[in-house]
Amino acid sequence: MSDRKAAVANLAPSAALTVEEVRSVRHWNEHLFSFTISRPASFRFRSGEFVMIGLMGEERPLLRAYSIASPAYAEELEFLSIKVPDGPLTSRLQKIQPGDQVFLGRKPVGTLVTDALLPGKRLFLLSTGTGLAPFLSLARDPDVYERFSQVLLVHCTRQVSDLAFREELESQLAGDPLVGEQALLQFHYLPTVTREPFRTTGRIGALIADGTLFGHPLVGPKELNPETDRVMMCGSMAMIRELQHQLEGLGFTEGSNAKPGDFVIERAFVD
What we know:
- This protein is of the alpha/beta class and about 270 residues long.
- It is built from 8 helices and 11 strands.
- A 6-stranded antiparallel β-sheet has the order 4-3-6-1-2-5. Strands 9-8-7-10-11 form a 5-stranded parallel β-sheet.
- Strand 10 (about 230-235), helix 8 (about 235-250) and strand 11 (about 265) form a beta-alpha-beta unit.
- The two termini are about 30 Å apart.
- The mean pLDDT is about 95.
């Protein structure tokens, strides 16, 4: 069976999986795409959580964990994915079209949630690549703006075309039905590119070191402070390891659903 035929094959739900319809697909460049699917009426999740998405394999469902990029109130579920030419799932998933069917796990989970963080003033959402996805959900959650006075989303990619959702984020989520007014005052977006010319270049660690991360319009100290700052990280393992070591050296403690802390990472997967 061809990848295209396999992608549109009729699927059957199970105790762990529902079958949903692809509503839209957006190809950002040759190796990055996003898609939306129908949302079951019973599906509930906290902003920042992930869920299993998949297609039918030769004998059993082929699944992968994907962070939910849409806000918790959205009628459809959105996801951001890389295209891996020889990837067991993504090589096929990138060929989906509206009307196709995909598997959706019934139980979303994850640690990139505000419940895992102690109260604070500034929230730093640090992402690389498709690690942006959970923060797209969190940035459109009214609860985030009630908990934190400033929210900074940093997205680090190799090239400019990898900056998915850049237009929406640069507009400070203008027009969002629930957080538009709050985001205009409290939300800030800092895109940075490592392999092409751009207005901001360099990895996240370098932006912290040279103070770029704390530039205007962010208000407050030009450094990370465990007394007031909270951090979420998602993306490459290299970035997470580097910044986790740095944060712990500054006195930050890692949080979890069971015990909130000063920073959280998603240990289930990296991009």
